[in-house]
Amino acid sequence: MQLNIGESSAFDVIKDTYDYETCKEITEHGCVSGVAHDHIYYKDTVAFFDKYEDEIVTHISESLGDDVLTDLFRDADASLTHYKNAVTWCYIELVAMDIVDNKESQMRLPLHHTLINSLHLPFLLSG
Q: Which range of residues forms the domain containing residue 55?
């Protein structure tokens, strides 16, 4: 196995390309809306798929199941270009959901701790 030092993962590329607000828009409107600005055209989505195919397919399979990949191929009418585009968009949408969920859970955590600490309930502290 050869290490590719300096190579980014597909996840890192998406995380570095799209900020939280853009990821939120992706989750709300999908890549089809054009909000995933670096992954609009077939040349971009196909190149991304070709470079990160194993990571993309594994992530989708583990997150949604293998049937989703089969359905995407069927929906693409067996066009490899359309399939790669659909799989790339599916992957980007999944990663965007992860980014939004993580950010929002981080935003809630400090508030939760602040509320608990401000209650000063003796029975919580007596342990």
A: 11-118
